[in-house]
Amino acid sequence: MRRTMLFLPGNTPNMLINGDTLGADTIIFDLEDAVSPDEKDAARILVRNALKYQSFPNCEVVVRINPTDTEFWKEDLKAIIPLKPDVIMPTKVSGGDMICQVAEFMTEVEKENGMEEGTVKILPLIETALGVEKSFEIASADKRVIGLFLGGEDFTADMHCKRTKEGKEIFYARTRLVCAARACGIEAYDTPFTDVEDMEGLEKDTEFAKSLGFAGKAVISPRHVDIVNAVFSPTESEIEYAHDVMDAIENGKRQGKGVISLRGKMIDAPIVKRAQQVLEMEKAIYGGACR
Amino acid sequence: MKILKNAVAGTLESSDLFIQIEPDEKELTLEIDSVVANQYMDAIRAAVLDTLKEFDVSTGKIFIKDKGALDCVIRARMETALKRGGVE
Amino acid sequence: MSKLISSVREAIEKTGLKDGMTISFHHHMRNGDFVLNMVLEQAAEMGIKDLTVNASSIFDIHEPIIEHIKNGVVTGLECNYMGGKVGKAISQGILEKPVIFRSHGGRAGDMENGSSKIDIAFLAAPCADNMGNCSGKYGPSACGSLGYAFSDAMHADKVVVLTDNLVPYPLKDTSISEGYVDYVVEVPQIGDPAKIVSGTTKITRDPVGLRIAGLAAQVVKHSGYLKDGFSFQTGAGGASLAVAKYVEEMMEKENIKGSFCMGGITGYMVEMANKGYFDTILDVQCFDLKAIESIRENPKHQEISAMRYASPAAKSAAVDSLDVVILGATQVDVNFNVNVHTDSNGFIMGGSGGHCDTAAGSKLAIIVAPLIRARLPLIVDEVLCKSTPGETVDVIVTQRGIAVNPKQKELKEKLLKAGLPVKDIEELKQIAEDIAGVPNKIKTGDKVVAKVLYRDGTLLDTIKNVL
Fold it and tell me: Which residues, 6+ apart, have CB-to-CB distance to C61 below 8 Å?
C-alpha cells in the first residue's frame, strides 16, 4: 500500500529521524533535487547512517538516487544498497536500458554484500517525454520494477509547456503511465501537487488521479499526507461491501454453489480480487500504526 | 591516516551538529560544545572517537558544536568531515 | 476626595510601603510589562529593603529584579510562572529564601483563604478613571482580560492602579471596580504594546507538531467527550493550538455544538466560538489582538477572574466543569507526573500557570509533546520537578504513540478499539531511548531554590539549585 509517498530532504537530520511519524505509507529519502551538489557526500552518508542505526517500522523506505548521467549515482547505490532500503528510485528514466543499467549495478552491490539478488526493488521516476513514450518498456525492463512514478514538473519542462493546477498538459502522460503499469501488472503513482497551501486543489487533483487508476501519489509537504491518504483509502461503504463479498463467497462454498451473487450481481474473480485488496488496506490502515 | 586539510561538515540546525577539522601532526585536540552536554557528553565523545578510530586517525584538531544530534548523525557528519579533509 | 496621585513615589509613600512587606503584580502585560520594574526601581531608590514580590508571572522583561535581589531590595519571590532569564539566576541560587511557586488557581485560593497575604497590590491598567475603576479592554496598552488581577484587588490591604490611559469618570465598562482601589497613578506607559500581545497567534507549521495534534484530536474524538455541550481548553503554543483546528474539523463534520472554551484565549478560539462551535468564551487572559477585540465587543466572550477560573478555595470554579484540556510538558515521568517548571538541565524556565488546575478539574487532561526534543527524551524515570501530579494526567500524546494513564482503563480500551497507537508509557520511554540513547542523570545541588505548592497549598515538590 503506497497511498502517500512523502519526499524528505536527504541532508536534514530532523526530517530523516521523524519522517516515519508523519503518516505517509512510504517515505522517500531524497539524494537528488533536495541536496545541493556540494552536499551530495554528506547526504549520502547521513541517509546511509539513518538506515543503519534507525528503524522505520511504520513505513516503507525509498531512496531517490542521483541520475545516471551524473558522477553520484553509483556512489549512492554502493552506500545505500547494503542497508537494504525497500526501494531505489532512479530519476529521469527514459528507457528500459537505463533500468537495466541500474539493476545490473544493484545486483553487483547486492552480491558484494552477500545479499540475495533482487532484494531491493526499483520504482522509476518518469519525467521526460521519452520516458513517457517508453513507459511500457521501462515497466517491463526488470523484475525489480514494482511501479511507475510520474514526475510532472520536469516532464512539462521537457514538453515545453506550462505546468498548471488543472493538469491538462499531463493528462496524456498520466493515462499512458497507468496503462503501461497495469499492462505489466504493477502500480502507477502520481506526481506531487506542488501548491503547499491549496488543500482543496490537492484533494481535487488527488481524486482525479485516483479516478485515472493511480494507486497513490507523491507528496512534498507533510501537511498533504492526510488528505491524500484519505482519498486513496477505501470508504466505509467499500469496506462493508468487501466484507459482504467475502461472506457471500464463504456461504456459497459452504452450500456448494458454483455461481455466487450478491445484491443481484454475480460475483466474479475481479470483484473478489478487489474485495481482497480493500480488506488488506483496511487491515493496514485500521489495524496498524500507520494512521 | 591523518587529516590533510581543513574541512567542515554539518549545520547548526536543531538535531544536527557542525564540525570543523584541521590537520595536526602531533596531537589530538577535541573540543565539543553541546546543548545536551549534561545528558549526552559521554555518548557524543564516544561516537566521535569511535569514528576517528574507524578511519585510523589519531591526531588533528576537531571542533564540534552540537545541537542535539543523534548518534547516527554525529557519526555521519564526522565521516563526511574526515573524508572532506582527505582521510580515505 | 481624589485618589489620583502624581507618581509611583507618592504611591509608595501614601500606601506606607516599608521594609519586609509583600507587594503584588499581575502579568497581563506579559513580556511588555513596565510596571513591576517601575515600582521596584522606585522602591530601591527610596532605600526600601527586604520586599517580597508576589507576581502572577515573572517574564524576561523583569530581568532587573535580579539586581534588586542582589542588593537586598527583594528578598522573597512568589509567582505562578517564571521565564528563563530570571529563572536561570534563581536556579543559580541568588535568592536566599526559596521562590514560592503556585498555580493560577492556587494563588487566587491562597489569597482568598488568607494564607498568602498581600500588603500592597500595584495593578497595571490599560484604562482607568480617577477613582480606580479599571479595565484591560481599552487603550494603547490594551491586554483584554484582567483575570489574574482580581484577587490582588480584592485581598491586598492597599491597591494602587497604574494607568497610561486615564479616562473621565465613570469608566463605562469596568472590570475591577473602585471599591477596591486606594490610589490611581497616571504614568507615561505601563507596557510595550508589541510585547503585551501577539499580532496574531498562528498554528504551528512544524510537521511533527501537527502530527501530534492530529493524534490528540483523535483521542478527544474517541474519548466520548466530543458531543453537544463539549467544553474545551487549549494553549497557544506548539502543538496545542493545532489540536483546536482538528477538533473544529470534527465538530463541523459531526455538527457538534460545544458549551464553552476557556483559558488564555487566542483569535483561533474566538473564531471557533463565532462560527457557533462554542456558546461562551471564558477568558482569564487574552493572547492576541483578536481576542482583545472580541472580549470588548462580543457578549459571548466573558472575562473571568482567576478565582472563577480555577480557585480550589471557591465553592466551584470553571475548571471543574471542563471536559477536555490540552497541555504541554518539558518532561513526563513513567508515573505521568509532569514537569513544566524546569528545562532538562534543571534550570527554572516556566511554571504551572493553570496546568495543574485544569488537569485536576477537567475530565480528560491530554499532554501533547514530541517524544524527543533535540535528542532529549520526553519520558524519564523521574521528573526534575513535579509540577502536575500524575493522578490528574490522563493521556500523553507523542508522534510515536499515545500513553494512557493505567487508571483510565475504559479510555484505553476505547482508544485501542479506534485503532490509535496506544502504547505503555514504559514502551514509549524505551522507543525514545532506543533512538536517542539513555541520558545521564542530572546532578542538582543541595540548596532548595524554589518550593512548588499544589493548588490546595500543600507542598508538591522542591527545586534544587543547578551546579
Answer: C31, C32, C33, C37, C195
**Chain A within 8 Å of B10 (Cβ-Cβ)?**
yes
A262 contacts A244 by C-beta, under 8 angstroms: yes
Q: Using an 8 Å CB-CB cutoff, list chain A residues near C214.
A: 23, 226
Is the pTM above the cut of 0.80?
yes
C242-299 pLDDT tens trace: 999 999 999 999 999 999 999 899 999 999 999 999 999 999 999 999 999 999 999 9
Structure-block grid coordinates of residue A165 = 493546477
**CA distance linking residue C431 with residue C378, whole number of Å:** 11
In chain C the first and final C-alpha atoms are separated, in Å, by 55
Best mutation target, C206, C371, C375, C435, to test chain B (most B CBs within 10 A): C375
Q: What element of type H or E holds C372?
A: strand C372-373
Whether A174 and A212 have beta carbons less than 8 Å apart is answered as yes
**What residues of chain B lie within 8 A of the CB of A54, using their CB?**
70, 72
pLDDT at A288 over 60: no
In which band, very low, low, confident or very high, does the pLDDT at A66 lie, cut at 50, 70 and 90? very high
Does C416 touch chain A if contact means CB atoms closer than 8 Å?
Answer: no
Alpha helices in chain A (DSSP H): 13-18, 40-53, 73-80, 96-112, 129-133, 135-139, 152-158, 171-183, 199-212, 225-232, 236-254, 269-286
- Asked whether the beta carbons of A72 and A11 are under 8 A apart, the reply is no
Cβ-nearest to C419 among A54, A226, A291: A291
Q: How far is CA C66 from the centre of its chain?
A: 22
Q: Would you give the end-to-end CA distance of chain B in angstroms?
A: 8
**A18·C399 Cβ contact <8 A:** yes
Q: What is the pLDDT of residues C38-95, one digit of tens each?
A: 999 999 999 999 999 999 999 999 999 999 999 999 999 999 999 999 999 999 999 9
